[in-house]
User: What shape does this take?
Amino acid sequence: MPRLLLATTNKGKAAEYRDLLKGLDLELITLNQAGISREAEEDHNTFEGNARSKAEFYAALSGLLTLADDSGLEVDALGGEPGVRSSRYAGDNATDPERVNFLLNKLRDIPQDRRQARFRCVIAIAQPGKLTQTTEGTCEGFIALEPKGDNGFGYDPIFYLPDYNKTIAELPPGIKNRISHRGRAAAKAGHLLAVLTGA
Assistant: This one.
């Protein structure tokens, strides 16, 4: 069975990818399972640039077909912030609740109807010596006034979806994975992986 390296140490993200790609005949392994502790640089100013550099770095290091992503939250009232800095927005070692509170404080004077935002995800698939390919997915919504829900991670508890009248963190995993930015990018990536591996 072909192996696919998931270039992440985030357990929540790895679990999502195992679910999103479960229809493919691939053995999914994480960086920890592959014994890789080196960190790729994420110094690009676009999601695509970071995803490509991570995928190519870990593919070269491992010799494996590698999937990496870069994703984040873009808030219109903040000029697109936090964007590529989503995980470091409140500081390099901030926890998810600290990031959420930091963002809510920035928006404290912004009314609900002006809190438009989107999650964006770019997935890169790299193989040593071959052209790296990318897919992208977005999910539109609003930033809620307070966190709600226990599912998901990151900014999920404050990302409100009007069509569901819930935050992403209040949705069952099956619905979240179908409509999320990562789910939409992964659906396209799954087609690419099937072609590349015959899985």
Summary: The domain at 3-197 is CATH 3.90.950.10 (Maf protein). Residues 6 and 30 are 5 Å apart (CA to CA). The first helix runs from residue 11 to 20. The beta strands are 3-6, 27-30, 65-75, 116-126, 133-143, 159-161, 166-167.
